[in-house]
Structure formats: structure tokens, C-alpha cells
Amino acid sequence: MAEHEPFALWLRNAAQLVQVCSKRELYLRGDELQRLPVLHNASLVLGRDGYIKAVGPADAIQTQFSNASFDKIIDCSGMCVLPGLVDAHTHPVWAGDRVHEFAMKLAGATYMEIHEAGGGIHYTVEHTRNALEEELFSSFQHRLLRMLRAGTTLVECKSGYGLALETELKMLRVIERARRELDIGVSSTYCGAHSVPKGKTASEAADDIINNHLPKLNDLMQSGDLRVDNIDVFCEKGVFDLNSTRRILQAGKDIGLQINFHGDELHPMNSAELGAELGAQAISHLEEISDKGIEAMGSAKCAAVLLPTTAYILRLNQPRARDMLKAGVIVALGSDFNPNAYCYAMPMVMHLACTNMKMSMNEALAAATINAAYSLGKSQSHGSLEVGKQGDVIIINSSRWEHLIYQFGGHQELIKYVIVKGKIVYQNDRVLSF
Ligand SMILES: N=CN[C@@H](CCC(=O)O)C(=O)O
Ligand SMILES: [Zn+2]
């Protein structure tokens, strides 16, 4: 079949083209992760509508598109083409860094000791409440650009440094603006239950969220002013207990939000069991998950969003990735970018997942693409290189894709192009020479 219409991009002759999925799978788990579909000497065509039109052997694509015109052709000889990376968990809108707390933690303070002394999330809340919306947008935009340069084309972004309605809405507006104006995919999460505001109990904070925050959010969503995809709660000892968590998540689900929350991070809370029961799309952290929780998440197809940077920085127990994979849990990865875990780069996250959580490189890549997209309810359109999917692609300057994980911190030089919805949004022309 000859193709005549003009196309946006022809990525041709890639040494490897890593599809991740080839049968429109919405997630990969168990044995499916042993081998990922990788085409050798392959090409990919992106349409002007931003979607993938063809993927296949270079000579077949050459024949099929011999009469077509392209806005741009990239010769990918010696390079690899992969799906854009999906970062399934970030807190990227805030003011005031916490480098001083990093020093305290290095000196032995725990995350909760700092939190209970009024630092941690509380410190960031204070600074974020005082920041102008424009300032928050500007620093957020800069962070998104850095994520993009590290290969992320779709990112989950949480509110949660307001706690009070006014600042939570300010953060969600900033996220909404980025979603509308910037060339990066955004999944927006309301995380008003990130911490219990000073002067309130968890139950009072839950009442405020259910009676005041969520109805307002619902109005703004209905009027089209705001799009919010997910609801999050920090379910943790000394933060939101299981009962308050359940009430908030259920109320969020009732207004159409996907449940995607923090659970079983520092203490076993039975969060995994709760999430499975409520039909959560995903639960993050899970360093302290129970055996029953693993089983429940596997059966419920609730994604486990593992965050290797958190365990690394806070010196926590590593999440039990191997047990989860063995039990058929859908494992995804996120950077957890926040003032505690200051890491933008999914290639480094994948590396840590391999070294510290004992995942294979195939498992890590699937977790940072199709499974991360699944955790956001977006794997129909994102997370793999298949015809009909959104054209989110990265091209790396290496003839074996595994270098993206192997070269710890090397992604800055390796990533040559980042393409979002068929548009080149980053091109790295850095020349490495002495
Ligand atoms: N654990 C709760 N929330 C964040 C940390 C946020 C913060 O410390 O500012 C996390 O996922 O690691
Ligand atoms: Zn988090």
C-alpha cells in the first residue's frame, strides 16, 4: 500500500526500535517481561496529527512510503528509538528547596523526625503558600524542561503543598496551565491530604477535604476550568490513618477521580489491601507492603508505583519488587521528584530499580513506559511504539537501548531527541570532543 499524504517525521534505519508492546497490551507483567519486542534496522513514521502511522523493518517502511513527503527525516543509523518515558509520581510544584534537610538526614535525622519537628512537607507548605502563582509556574516549567531533557514525555504531577483549599487550587491551576501550554504530557493529581494541617486532626482534615475541597474541585472540573485526573492521600502513621484515607479516596472516586495514593511507605498500614478493595488504579511507595497486600494488588490489577530514589535517599527498606513481580503485580516506576528526593531523571530511576530493587532492564523499561502509563490510566494512548498511539518518542545515541539504563547519569549525552506528539521538543546537539 502506497502512502501519499504528507507526514510529520520519518525516523529511519534505527539500529534498534524498542516497541515495549506490540499487541496493544495495556500493561506487562510476569513472563511478558522476559522479552520486549525490539526491531532491528527499523523505522517509524509519525503523522502530522501527532500519532504513530507505521512501525516496522526499514526496507518495508521505505517501500510503503516511497511516494510520501515528510516535514523532517531523521537518520537513526547507529541509534535506538524508544517510547518516551513516563514518570508515574512527582511533586513538582513548590517553592523553597530543602537542601538544609538533606544535610540533617545525612547526619542521621529520619524523614518523620524532621516532619514532626515542623520541617519536611510543612516547610514546603509554608513557602508554597507564600509564593505567587506566576513564580510557581516559572519554577515548575523549568523542572518540566529538565524532565523532558531526561526523556520524560508524560508526567504525573501532584498538588499537596497547600493543604488549605486556596493554595491547593493555586497549585492545580499551575499544573493545568502547564498541561495546556507546554509540550509535555501531564496527569494532574489532587493531593490535599499530603499532610495534616497544623491545628487539625486527621479526621477533621478529612472532613474539610470531603465537605469543602472536593465539591469545589468538582465544580471547577464540571465547568472545564480544571482537569484533575487522580486523587492522592499520604496514608501513613502520624499522617492519614486508614479510615480517613478510605473516606477521602472514596469521596474522590465518587467525583470521578482515579485513586492513586501513597501507602505502606514507612510503616505497614494495610494500604495495599485498602487500595485493592477501593479499586485504586495505583499505589505508590509500598516499602512496607504485606504479603496479603501484594496478593491483593496482583488480583486487583492495581499498579505498584515503586520509587527507588526515596528508599535510596532516606535509606529505607527497598520495595519488594521481586516479590511483586512474582505475584503478577503490575510494577511501574516514578522519580518521586520533590524537595526531599531531588531527582528528575527516569534513566537514573531505572538504574536504581535494577541495582537496588533487583529488577531486570526489561522490567525497568516496561515499568517506566507502558506500566507507568497504565498507573495513570493512559496506556491505551501512551507507553509503547505501536500504530495509532501518540507519537512520544526518544532517540538515544547508542546502538543498544540498554545503555540508557547502564550509563548511570549518562542520559544527558545519550538522549539525542525527545519527541512529543510528533513534534521535536528537544534536540541535543552537544558535541563530545576534547
Ligand atoms: N511521602 C510522602 N510524600 C513525598 C515526599 C514529599 C515531601 O517530603 O515533600 C514522597 O512521595 O516521597
Ligand atoms: Zn510522593
TrEMBL record:
Query: What SUPFAM superfamilies is this protein classified in?
Result: Composite domain of metallo-dependent hydrolases (SSF51338), Metallo-dependent hydrolases (SSF51556)
Concerning PANTHER family, the annotation shows: IMIDAZOLONEPROPIONASE (PTHR42752), IMIDAZOLONEPROPIONASE-RELATED (PTHR42752:SF1)
Which source organism?
Answer: Microcaecilia unicolor
- InterPro entries given for it? Amidohydro_3 (IPR013108), HutI (IPR005920), Metal-dep_hydrolase_composite (IPR011059), Metal_Hydrolase (IPR032466)
Q: Species lineage, top-down? A: Eukaryota, Metazoa, Chordata, Craniata, Vertebrata
Q: Per the UniProt entry, what are the Gene Ontology biological process annotations, in alphabetical order?
A: L-histidine catabolic process to glutamate and formamide; L-histidine catabolic process to glutamate and formate
Which named protein is this?
A: Probable imidazolonepropionase
Q: Name one GO cellular component term.
A: cytoplasm
Q: Which positions fall inside the Amidohydrolase domain?
A: 132-426
Catalytic activity entry: 4-imidazolone-5-propanoate + H2O = N-formimidoyl-L-glutamate
* Family designation: Belongs to the metallo-dependent hydrolases superfamily. HutI family.
